[in-house]
Amino acid sequence: MKKLLILVSLLVLASLVLVACGAPVTEDLLAAIMERGYILVSSDPNYEPYSFANSEGVRPADTKCPEETLTSAEIQGFDIDVAVAVGEALGVETCFPTPSWDLITAGSWADRWDVSIGSMTITTTRLEVLDFSIPYYYSPAVVAVSTASGFDSVDDLAGQAVCAGTSTTYEFWLNGDMEGLGLPESSIYTSAPEGVSVVSLPTDQECAQAIEAGRTEFSAYVTSEGVVDANIADGLPIVKLEDAVFSEDLAAAFDKSSTLDTASLVEKVNEIFAALHEDGTLSELSIEWHGKDITQAPN
């Protein structure tokens, strides 16, 4: 009995030492977020109008965000406002690490960020490594071409070079990789052009910027309609071709290999998204950034 009491005392003492040293004492990710006072939401600083740098933003002196992340004053866009709304509902600050897209979609985040609220499409392939919330918006994928290209239809791109972001649904579609695309047949409206060669850049926004900069190895790119509309509004020399090539349901994503249990965080984000749909907040944010409501499920 005496040995047992000593062992128990040592265990209690060890736990107190861990707390004093700042070691995590919870196995739940939501609880950890609430304890630290901020949520880490991965984002892309070059994906207008969803997320992009705010050149006029000043980092708050009293921010809780880790030094290597961006604050909501330094990055802006539709996804950013949605992420901030999630943080406000939790009562914590929202901070934005900016890993590359292929790292986010691959899973195994090693706890470097808590959630992706970054226009990620729900696909069967991604479901193998990630959990998803309910969708917070819906978007068609479209093809855009340089105004100097002379292309009038998707079929005109047969045998041509077309750009897409690495590890995106747009790259999978161009490659004819239906398994990688991972969408139901009802969401795919047309096949990629015959014999197309794919030029992959870190993000699909860089495809548009390459055309603007005068690069000539391709004159077309595939991305979301929201990105193309923003590119046109910014005066880029491009036009949007025909109708959508496929449609996407966009949601928050969570790493299945997280060392902390994500179930309560997934449930909470679902509750928050449902409330933001119900009270019109998501619709208002969509209209602010896109000029239209893209948060309603297509009929």
Radius of gyration, taken over Cα atoms and rounded to an integer in Å: 22 Å
Number of strands: 11
Domain count: the total is 2
The protein's oligomeric status is: single chain
Share of residues in helices:
25-40%
Mean pLDDT: 92
Question: Can you tell me about this structure?
Answer:
The protein is an alpha/beta fold and 299 residues long. It has two domains: 27-57 and 66-137 and 249-290, D-Maltodextrin-Binding Protein, domain 2 (3-Layer(aba) Sandwich); 139-248, Periplasmic binding protein-like II (D-Maltodextrin-Binding Protein, domain 2, 3-Layer(aba) Sandwich), CATH 3.40.190.10. It has ten helices and eleven strands. A six-stranded mixed sheet has the order 5-1-6-11-7-10, with helices on both faces. The chain has a three-stranded antiparallel sheet with strand order 2-3-4. Strands 8-9 form a two-stranded parallel ribbon. The longest helix has 19 residues, at 2-20. Residues 1-23 have low confidence and may be disordered.
List keywords for this structure.
10 helices, alpha/beta, 2 domains, 33% helix, 299 residues, disordered N terminus, D-Maltodextrin-Binding Protein, domain 2, three-stranded antiparallel beta sheet, six-stranded mixed beta sheet, 24% strand
